[in-house]
Amino acid sequence: xxxxxxxxxxxxxxxxxxxxxxxYSRYAYGxxxxxxxxxxxxxxxxxxxxxxxxxxxxxxxxSFTACDTLTFMFDIAASVNWSHYRDAAGxxxxxxxxxxxxxxxxxxxxxxxxxxxxxxxxxxxxxxxxINDSIPSTAHFTKTYTGDGNISQVYxxxxxxxxxxxxxxxxxxYMWGDLNHMRTLTFTETGINPSVENENLHVSNVRFRAGAQxxxxxxxxxxxxxxxxxxxxxxxxxxxxxDTQTDINIETYTGYWQxxxxxxxxASYNWxxxxxxxxxxxxxxxxxxxYNGLPGSYSGLQNRNRFAGGVEYRHNPAGRNYAERxxxxxxxxxxxxxxxxxxxxxxxxxxxxxxxxxTIGTVINTTIxxxxxxTSAGLEDNGLRLTIGASIAETWxxxxxx
Length: 402
What we know:
Layout: H1 5-15, E1 31-32, H2 38-41, E2 71-87, E3 90-109, E4 113-135, E5 139-163, E6 166-187, E7 195-218, E8 221-230, E9 233-243, E10 249-254, E11 257-259, E12 262-271, E13 275-284, E14 290-291, E15 294-295, E16 304-313, H3 322-325, E17 327-335, E18 346-356, E19 361-374, E20 380-395
Antiparallel strand pairs: 1-4, 2-3, 2-20, 3-4, 4-5, 5-6, 6-7, 7-8, 7-9, 8-12, 9-10, 9-11, 12-13, 13-16, 14-15, 16-17, 17-18, 18-19, 19-20
């Protein structure tokens, strides 16, 4: 991990760019990321029950021992996102793109121990909202809300095959980042000074995730069951507020935030290395974690539930016709927004294709994901994200015969 760390940190400035343009990212930690590879994103974001020697799955640390004992794997992906949102003030469109993640995976001891390291997003903030209003016969003004920033994380994970049907794993993450929010009030009339308030939340933390998988194959059938768990942890944080309405006023708050207790379960079924069906459920107890020094339920946070399901199909993994070897994927997910003020659920539907290459163990994965949240009576946000990733597998660990 020491050897690979300089490469990962070299990429972190690219990763610090905005990965969202949704007005819903204005709240709390912004848009959260599921940390699944591109192929699994096309299946609705499943991962806890997925175990595949052709994919690096950071969401489930117990899955790393599924890798081939002679293979080094590398996965990188980038995305372009188009957002369309509307409210009573009108319609707005915006596009942005960025590096998504970089991960690596390799065996340490035969089929029994494997390791993975990488750079992942945790959450993203990116919005720009302007609202015109007035006080009758007094003043006309514009309220502008802007925000940007990311929380990123570097992880290192180990997986152990306890026996031929049971694996345990754990990830250690180092998180860091800044979330910036600005509120500006400007007046059309002269003689009225504008008001500007800046908030910067700086966070850093080490957190842990444990995972377990049960797996069994008989004939052409394989079943995987998985679970993950993260305990509630303090988030090392510092919030700085600068208000210029009258005089510059700086307030700083520290240690008022926590990461929520998180757990999830998943299952997948594979037939003949051709058809895979998978389901996930995840729960984040946001209402019990501190936010702004109070339990989340007092700060407008609620528990987040996420359901996901997906399917992958290829006609013949060894077929002579290239189309027979292509991987076709589709999925859907439904999740609660973790703020009570939003109310509406986030619904995502995705499709994708995997393009395998003959010369090296590489699959080019593409995913198109559509997301919808909000209501036509309030703020409605529709997004379309194209993600392209390359999953590379190279045979490194073998002894050459003289």
